[in-house]
From TrEMBL:
Pfam families the UniProt entry points to: Amino_oxidase
Residue ranges of every copy of the Amine oxidase domain listed in the record: 17-414
Keywords: Oxidoreductase
Keyword set includes Oxidoreductase: yes
GO molecular function list: oxidoreductase activity
Record flagged with keyword Ubl conjugation: no
InterPro entries: Amino_oxidase, FAD/NAD-bd_sf, Flavin_amine_oxidase
Top-rank taxon: Bacteria
Full protein name: FAD-dependent oxidoreductase
Reported cofactor(s): FAD
């Protein structure tokens, strides 16, 4: 383990997506940057483990290709993205219906009209809502009154069956919030991303995002296994020594940031557990299509992830990723998630296979998956607190887009302090 430098122009605390993006942008402007990270690898909450030949993301995550910040920080082509189908399998009233994208297949229109997801007026309101959030300028969406999503949907004619059967179950998997008191501005923007882009994973796992940023940094920039005990505007105290700096950036998760910077508001976390199962042979019917469970069950959603990205599983085997959120009916569940056997039985039903056809690979509980975004949500929190620059998804939105957007503002704050130019360049 190399010796920690005594000084750097900027010290970044945390080697998650936001911290790496800040370091890379500053280094490209000639700034001397030191990144300190408590874990044994970069990535923060974005990690991928290899277990028995399977690639297991720590909690099922996807990357949306329409995120505005994506191409500003990453070389998207080198990520080798593998998209999921632009469709949704919905389990409701004892049957599975497929909702496709009519822009790709006109047969999706009669299928949606026949689906038990609401009245004809409700379906028309849903189509109008999707078109509006998909094609109106984002600034228009952000000027809308920020309400709990479930309230906003009702006011737009989407209450009742449309919400309970489709919107609430679908967004539960994105926000870990079955009650959907999450910011309506955020769910509008997320729906916009799905209308405009594709949901995908890198063929090498989600960890390829932070790994790519880390590879672009100068050798020796990131110091792993280094726990930070104290920060100030010009100093970072770690268990390996003290580093002085002209500017300090705290780019940790919300809980760690609150410990280091007591002026921040402690977050409320939303959690999930992802269960991985193997299925011999090819994927079940539907292929690389997300299945959302709108019926009472432990499952929120499930997908044959290796049908999109074959490298996630050994040849001849399908890897199923199933997510359940840690809150049901407004009440928190055990942070470890429901029993695997219950989940496996339900997954078998959702995919039309027998429970004995599925073998448990791993269970990945993530009790601190996302900072809550209860409406009204503050999308742009201050980039400087007590003289220390701070960034992360908790300073914007609980998403990859939010982490990278907060990194942009952190770079601007540091550049202003150091008197260097903050250029918005591509990956």
């Amino acid at each position: 383990m190399s010796e920690l430098p005594a000084h750097g122009d900027v010290v970044v605390v945390g080697a998650g997506l936001a911290g790496l993006a800040v370091a890379r942008r500053l280094q490209s402007r000639g700034v001397d940057v030191v990144v300190v990270e408590a874990a044994d690898e970069v990535g923060g909450r974005i990690r991928t483990d290899t277990v028995d030949g399977f690639q297991l993301d720590r909690g099922f995550q996807v990357l949306n290709t329409a995120y505005p910040q994506l191409s500003r920080h990453l070389d998207v082509g080198r990520l080798d993205l593998r998209p999921f189908e632009r469709a949704l399998r919905l389990r409701t009233r004892g049957r599975t219906v497929v909702l496709g994208d009519p822009r790709q297949d006109l047969r999706a229109v009669p299928a949606a009209l026949a689906a038990p997801i609401g009245s004809p007026l409700g379906k028309l309101a849903l189509a109008a809502h999707a078109a509006a959030v998909g094609y109106l300028p984002a600034r228009v969406l952000l000027r809308r009154r920020d309400l709990p999503s479930v309230v906003a949907w009702r006011r737009r004619g989407l209450g009742g069956t449309v919400t309970d059967t489709l919107l609430r179950p679908f967004f539960s998997g994105l926000t870990c919030d079955p009650a959907q008191v999450t910011s309506s501005r955020f769910t509008d923007l997320m729906l916009r991303m799905f209308v405009r882009g594709e949901a995908a994973v890198p063929d090498g796992g989600m960890w390829q995002l932070p790994a790519q940023l880390a590879r672009l940094l100068a050798e020796g920039t990131v110091r792993l296994n280094t726990t930070v005990r104290e920060v100030s505007p010009e100093r970072v105290v770690t268990d390996r020594g003290t580093v002085t700096a002209r500017a300090v950036v705290v780019a940790t998760d919300a809980e760690t940031a609150t410990r280091l910077l007591p002026g921040l508001t402690p977050p409320r976390w939303r959690g999930l557990t992802t269960y991985y199962h193997r299925l011999e042979g090819g994927p079940p019917p539907g292929g690389a299509t997300l299945t959302v469970d709108a019926e009472p069950s432990p499952v929120t959603n499930t997908v044959p992830v290796s049908a999109a990205a074959p490298s996630y599983a050994p040849a001849g085997v399908t890897l199923l990723a199933t997510t359940t959120v840690h809150e049901r009916g407004g009440q928190p569940q055990d942070a470890s998630g429901p029993a695997e056997e219950r989940v496996r039985r339900r997954v078998a039903t959702l995919h039309g296979v027998g429970p004995g056809d599925l073998d448990h690979v791993a269970t990945c509980p993530v009790p601190r998956a996302l900072p809550a975004m209860t409406a009204p949500h503050r999308f742009r929190r201050p980039a400087v607190t007590g003289g220390v620059v701070v960034c992360g998804d908790h300073r914007a939105t609980s998403s990859i887009q939010g982490a990278l957007e907060s990194a942009e503002r952190a770079v601007e704050a540091v550049a202003s302090r150091l008197g260097v130019r903050a250029v918005h360049e591509g990956g």
